[in-house]
Amino acid sequence: MDRREFMQLGALAGGTLLAGQALAQTSSNLAPVRAEKPRIVAPGGQVAVVTPNGSTLPWKNVRGVKVGHLVAMPVKHTFAPGLEVEAWGYNGSTPGPTIEAVEGDRIRIYVTNRLPEPTTVHWHGLILPNGMDGVSGLNQRPIAPGETFAYEFTLNRAGTYMYHPHYDEMTQMALGMMGMLIVHPKRPRGPRVDRDFALMTHEWKVLPGMRRPDPNAMSDFNVLTFNSKAFPATAPLIIGRGERVRIRFGNLSAMDHHPIHLHGLYFEMTGTDGGFVPESARYPETSVLVPVGSTRVIEFVADEPGDWAMHCHMTHHVMNQMGHEAPVTVGANARTIDQHVQALVPQYMTMGQAGMGGMEEMGMPVPTNSIPMMGGKGPFGSIDMGGMFTVLKVRENPEAEDGSGWFAHPKGTVADKADPAKLAADGIDPDVHFG
Amino acid sequence: MKTWSSSRWKKPAQGALLATTLVLGGCVSVPYADDVRDVRSTLGPRWTPEVPVPALTGEAQRGEDIDAAVKQLLAQPLTADSAVRIALLNNRDLRAAMHELGIATGNLVQASLPPIPELELELSKPGGEHELQLGVGVEYSLSDLLLLPQRRGVALAERASERARTAGEVLSLAYRTRLAFYDVQARRQQLELRNLALRNAQARYATAAELEKVGNLRALDLATERSAVESARLAVAESENGVQDAREALNVLLGVFGAGTQWTVDSLLGDPSDALSKQDGLEARAIESSLDLSTLRGRMEAAELRRKLAATEGFLPDVSGGVSGEREDDRWQMGAHIKVGVPLFDRKRGERISALSSRESLKARYEATATAIRASLRQTRFRVESTASRAKHVRDVLLPATRKALEETVLQYNAMQLGVFDLLRAQDNVTNAASTYVDTLLEHHRARAALEQLLAGRHEGLELAPTRISAAASGSGSAPASDAH
Ligand SMILES: [Cu+2]
Coiled coil located at which positions (chain A) (predicted)? Predict the structure, then answer.
């Protein structure tokens, strides 16, 4: 069924138009804030980490100790307009705020538990006194609901780390409890970067129409996120042409590694949660595999302006709420099937017989609280992607961008329908037969 | 529990009819019209309001009028009431039953006539100079005349019993017609649902065939869907047969044939109602109006009267008397005589024993019948209530739930979480719930008809067993899934 045929199914038109409008309205609310001039937070002009769709933990300086407060709590979370869940997180969000400090800082973090069950916090990748490592039963007693514990230690190694519960972690992480922890070096290493981003990858199982992620899931993860947002709700990363950029990826997914692929540039991996990769060991790449329970840091300079895709290369990880129980209809004659089934269920129409691209544009009514076929609007039509997908916006004047606009392509630089005269001149016969 | 007592069953005799028959005694014709009127007045208070008792018409009014009325009723789509009306007008078994009542009426008329006097004429010619002699004698049985009221009493009681039995036949015909009509309605609806189930199976098969053709489905799944289509087809064929059977059963009751069998039904089984079941004292009402008990009462009374008659006959000498005249020599000699037969040996003891036993047997049967009526009433009443609440549950809860499930399946299908086969199975569940509704409604209407029948006075021939006419349904909905691949 093509779109024109679909519109002839008048019975459905009302509902779908409304759904489409609702989507258009809400997605504009999710546009990223105007890109600000990077803030300097560490010696040597090291810029602050930006957590797209997220926030940074505020510090209080108390007699030379950086004091912060994490509250473990249930949160209402929207992955993308149309899918809101009862998740767990810190300080009202998932992921929790990014903790950002400098090598040598002494930090004291109070952790208040407002969950219905105990919790702890493990500081993933940090080397610290054993009693501060947060493994319930091994290093400490669990923080009971209502209790507040204090963690205090000195950050003696720079790097990209994470934090997450180590009590019933299967449930607590599946429900969204995690965050990034970044320690800037006291003395900057390598070339100074102009932008520094933190992106936590994650995977969830939320069946269409449900309101709580399934912590028992071992496969069938159907919501894939950067900082707990699924495309089109992922905020783009706005950078200036020629700027040196660092992106820190973390992965606290239950089961899957994520090969994150960047378009329009190549990069080198400069760090893991183990530390810095020596220059001699770096090599150029366009995809970086972020394994479960690891961080990966990449750096690059983007020379080519434009709107560049950045996404997990597992194709099912750039879908929203995929199901895989339905029969394959690719190649089938939809008319034959429709004729029979519509006589019994008028709302029915065969899908997927000509592939699944553009599905979202049909705007069919779907279960409440679900985003099974969501895609994003692009300058050339629908971007039929979801999940772990975002856009790297490389611009001449990044501070002037709010991320909602599209790259203006110089004339003649966009692929388009070939001119028949040019085809003929180049000796190309579009009707050529093979086999 | 009420038990039989003589005061209860000694009802005043129907005098009007007797008077009529005596007046008409001279010219003989079948008493059909009078019998019908009599049965109608017997049914009157018992007749449930919706049923058109006036449809029961006398022979005198029969003929073209009736045929035209039946034709007119048949030309409209039938309703339960119009079917009953046609049956009352047109059913030949009912007409036969009316004529059977005429037999009892005839017996009554006969028993009401006084004994015939015997006239004797004697001519003799002794010879010689004697002239022809003429003797005239009249003889009359006085004991027969004395026993006449008692014999008439027996016949009257027997006819009362027959009248109640015939009224019961009328009720029974109305009841059976009603059931047959509901059966036609229900089977028509089930046929539609079976056709829907077949279309569903065909849609699954067509989809499977299309998917198999382009390499997306196993041959196994295709074969499975094919077998589901074939079972669904069989279910439709069975259902068609069921409709035909039900129509023929109703045709017999309506007394129609040929073009008369072309009637249609366009209404659906009505919604469940609980109007009757809310009333109290239904058991007493059923006993009060029971024609089955009336019949037994009439027969008991006849047996009692036969016993009394036999007792009277046993002690009453056979008396007859007469006058005679003899003409001799131009003169009449008059004389009278009386004849007395003394019942020394035959005092009708045997007849008395028979009559008494018959009375006692009927009395016991009366009590057994009353017990059965009460049990049937409780059973029927419970079934009316139970089927009404079940039908309402199916209508108000189950059906909407399956429809909601279908709607949600559509959404899940749109969300590509479920496949087209899941969708069609959800639709099939709606069909099956509708099927359950039809079954339950049929059971409800049958139970209600039975309850009305009991309250109208008839408990013989009630069909109280639950019915399931959708047994064929199982074939279509149970085909294994073939969504997974
Ligand atoms: Cu992935």
Answer: none
